[in-house]
Design a protein that fits this description.
six-stranded mixed β-sheet, 2 domains, Rossmann fold, 365 residues, alpha/beta, 11 helices, 12 strands
Length: 365
């Protein structure tokens, strides 16, 4: 049984299709600001409780981004690695047909774990309405994740936050944890501004060069070898992990629960920008604050993806998407950090207060 409170969830729907074996759930958490928006997660272990927590996160993320979306999420219980592509397509299409009663009027789907552009094509086709989901291929009016909307937004959150941490970003050093889609764009935009990239990690390890890493060479090595580790000219002998690097700014872009209480003493950063989801708990964020490290919370910094989804939903193009991501993240990051400074409270608490107020005010209306 999913827990309820004053905000929701409004609907929890379990759906099943005996022909394909599709077994799924959608949680529409809150629609005070608009139809619930959130991706479809496909794993063998996804549960209603997990989906409900993710849906609540989307309620706050969409509210903070000032989008006319509520919060929602869905899940399909299936192991992507153990089913054929044909079987997966049948399951996704069955799931889409089962949600026609609420999609797209009350729920708008999107990509998540093991669900990407092609799966969104199947979902939209089976639903019969392109507004049923975002993250579709370009020929269906989609704005692909590969455009870098999330990393672009994370970079702009850092530009806003840098003065609050006593930094000038274009003269600062930075490290990137995770050289996937988000980390790649953060590294590109950061070095393009003039900041010095000194360390990058991926699932295989890390590379460091305190004289500065050339982004184009890093990109070439990653594409050719599948890792950043073989990049020549670096020296990681002084560091056991990305958390040991001496740099002004750390961008997290991959692993959840990256920073734990025991790690606080080793951190030498002045600013941490959370491009990944939940790289540390709120309690650890507070320990960072006590040490003088400014942390920009995940749902403040990494909402570029859902902002891009809104632009796609309304029929906008790539240029409009980048303009809106920059405008909204710059505006809301500044609001949160100014409030944090004024009230001497953690940025996450100020961001949550703002998101909750926006939802609650619309519920009253």
């Amino acid at each position: 049984m999913v827990d309820h409170d004053e905000f929701g969830p409004e609907k929890v729907l379990s759906v099943y299709d005996s022909r394909t074996g599709m077994n799924g759930v959608v949680v529409i958490d809150n629609t005070a600001l608009g139809p619930g928006k959130g991706g479809i997660r496909m794993t063998s272990t996804v549960s209603a409780d997990e989906v409900a927590k993710l849906a609540r996160t989307m309620t706050w993320k969409n509210a903070l981004a000032e989008l006319p979306f509520g919060g929602a999420k869905s899940g399909i219980m299936a192991d992507d690695k153990k089913i054929t592509r044909q079987k997966k397509e049948a399951i996704v299409r069955a799931f889409s047909r089962a949600l026609k009663a609420v999609c797209p009027e009350q729920y708008i789907a999107g990509p998540d774990m093991y669900m990407a552009e092609e799966e969104m094509r199947w979902f939209a086709e089976a639903n019969g309405d392109r507004r049923a989901c975002t993250g579709k291929p370009r020929d269906l009016g989609g704005l692909p994740h590969e455009l870098g909307s999330t990393g672009f937004g994370v970079f702009h959150a850092a530009r806003v936050a840098a003065p609050f941490a006593g930094l000038d970003l274009k003269d600062a050093t930075f490290a990137v944890e995770g050289f996937g889609n988000v980390g790649w764009f953060v590294a590109k935009f950061g070095t393009g501004l003039g900041a010095k990239l000194v360390a990058v990690s991926d699932s295989r390890g890390m590379t460091c060069n305190f004289g500065g890493i050339d982004f184009k060479e890093l990109d070439r090595v990653k594409k050719e070898t599948g890792s950043v580790v073989p990049l020549k000219g670096g020296d990681c002998s002084c560091c056991d992990s990305i958390l040991d690097v001496k740099a002004d700014t750390l961008f997290t872009a991959a692993v959840p629960d990256l920073i734990k209480p025991a790690d606080i003493g080793r951190l030498k950063f002045k600013l941490i920008v959370e491009g990944s989801n939940i790289p540390m708990t709120p309690a650890v964020e507070e320990l960072c604050r006590q040490k003088g490290i400014l942390v920009v919370p995940d749902f403040v910094a990494n909402s570029g993806g859902v902002i891009s989804s809104y632009v796609e939903y309304t029929g906008g193009d790539e240029k409009q998407m980048f303009a809106m991501v920059e405008e909204k993240i710059v505006h809301n990051a500044r609001l949160v950090l100014e409030d944090s400074q004024k009230r001497d409270l953690p940025p996450r608490q100020c961001a949550m207060d703002l998101a909750v107020k926006r939802v609650r005010d619309n519920m009253k209306g």
